[in-house]
């Protein structure tokens, strides 16, 4: 009874201003801190107790697209947008990294939104932002491939030697083989709008002496198996990948095919199944030992600025024996959180207005008249 009376007194003393202030604190705490921690509780558990020579965890980040300055609104909106997007990427990636403790980090292109057309000063600022957002790349084996936003290649944004050279100078080679543990990561730069089968086959021939590990993974920015079979089939038959990981589409999907690398006379037909993975909550398993089959996993974007409702980081737990388990670490819907800010701002404004209107006014006495 006494505690009830105390609570009633406290509620009587609770002013509208205090309620508004408490609401602001709660919303900011939830939107900027708690929601990210809550989201990690929903992620699939990744074993950190693994044999280094027999197991490997790869963390995939696709299409972060750091916001540029040319296509954004001016100060202060553009600055706020870049700041918020960068903080979102940094918060989510650091948690994904801590959750998985990956052996390898793979970026699947479109690192920057305006990397292709950036001035040298802009490009340097984007580089600094990249390293501040993803500092874990300095302590963990990292493989980075470019996307069309980094070096051109889509629409009228043409790819040029200058753009490619600039990317390779600050990151790594456009093509090649990156070895780590029992996996060869192949970078072939397969593009949908450019038919370069002979050039790619020559590249594979040059890379062949470096392909010595039991598992072979092609990483590419653009999706590969959506292209005409007559163009891709000769490349995949020659490269003999166990699996492909790609980005570009911003969504989580998977091309499944058990016979795509067989000697099929039907050169115009891919016998694959396109599987949606937007609702994946646990591991899916992929058999990498099927030598005539091939699968391609599309990793979703990790940036909320792409407008996709489902953002995340891909995680692959790979065993030397050829067993692969894959899942997605889904991220909080940032636009929903920003809408919460708008609603909270409206509520706080109404509360403060009500407080101002209902506040008691002190009566002003008229001045005394002296005779």
What percentage of residues falls in helices of 4 or more residues?
25-40%
| Structural classification | alpha/beta
Inertia-based shape: elongated
How do the SSEs run, as a string of H and E? HHEHEHEHHEEHEHEEEEEEEH
Number of strands: 13
Low-confidence stretches: none
CA(first)-CA(last) distance: 61 Å
Number of helices: 9
- How many whole angstroms does the radius of gyration measure? 27 Å
Mean pLDDT rating: 91
Strand residue percentage: 15-25%
The major sheet is characterized as:
7 strands, mixed
* Order of neighbouring strands in the sheet with most strands: 4-5-6-7-11-8-9
Describe the overall structure:
The protein is an alpha/beta fold and 371 residues long. Helix content is 37%, strand content 19%. It is built from nine helices and 13 strands. The protein has helices spanning 2-12, 16-41, 77-100, 120-133, 148-151, 161-170, 197-207, 229-239, 334-358, and strands spanning 55-61, 104-108, 141-145, 176-180, 183-187, 215-220, 243-246, 253-257, 273-276, 284-287, 294-298, 312-319, 323-330. A seven-stranded mixed β-sheet has the order 4-5-6-7-11-8-9, with no helix packed on it. The longest helix is centred in the first third of the chain and has 26 residues, at 16-41. The chain is elongated, with a radius of gyration of 27 Å.
């Amino acid at each position: 009874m006494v505690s009830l009376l105390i609570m009633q007194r406290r509620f009587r003393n609770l002013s509208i201003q205090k309620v508004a202030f408490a609401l602001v604190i709660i919303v900011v705490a939830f939107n900027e801190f708690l929601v990210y921690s809550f989201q990690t509780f929903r992620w699939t558990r990744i074993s950190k107790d693994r044999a280094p020579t027999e197991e490997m965890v790869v963390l995939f980040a696709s299409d972060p697209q750091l916001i540029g300055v040319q296509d954004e609104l001016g100060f202060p909106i553009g600055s706020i947008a870049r700041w918020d997007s960068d903080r979102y990427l940094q918060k989510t990636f650091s948690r994904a990294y801590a959750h998985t403790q990956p052996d390898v980090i793979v970026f699947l292109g479109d690192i920057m939104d305006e990397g292709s057309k950036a001035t040298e000063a802009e490009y340097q600022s984007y580089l600094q932002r990249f390293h501040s957002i993803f500092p874990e790349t300095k302590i963990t084996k990292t493989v980075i491939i470019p996307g069309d936003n980094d070096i051109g290649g889509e629409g009228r944004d043409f790819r040029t030697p200058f753009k490619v050279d600039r990317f390779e100078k600050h990151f790594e080679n456009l093509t090649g083989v990156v070895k780590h543990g029992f996996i060869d990561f192949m970078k072939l730069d397969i593009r949908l709008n450019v038919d370069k089968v002979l050039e790619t086959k020559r590249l594979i021939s040059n890379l062949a002496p470096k392909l010595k590990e039991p598992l072979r993974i092609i990483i590419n920015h653009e999706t590969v198996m959506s292209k005409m079979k007559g163009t891709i089939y000769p490349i995949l038959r020659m490269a003999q990948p166990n699996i492909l990981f790609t980005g570009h589409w911003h969504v989580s999907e998977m091309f499944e095919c058990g016979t795509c690398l067989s000697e099929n006379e039907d050169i115009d037909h891919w016998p694959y199944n396109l599987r949606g993975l937007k609702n994946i909550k646990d591991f899916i398993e992929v058999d990498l030992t099927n030598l005539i089959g091939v699968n391609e996993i599309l990793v979703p974007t990790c940036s909320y600025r792409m407008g996709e409702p489902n953002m995340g980081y891909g995680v692959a737990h790979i065993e030397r024996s050829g067993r692969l388990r894959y899942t997605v670490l889904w991220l909080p819907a940032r636009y929903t959180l920003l809408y919460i800010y708008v609603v909270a701002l409206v509520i706080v404004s109404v509360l403060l207005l009500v407080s101002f209107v209902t506040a008691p006014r002190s009566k002003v006495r008229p001045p005394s008249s002296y005779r």
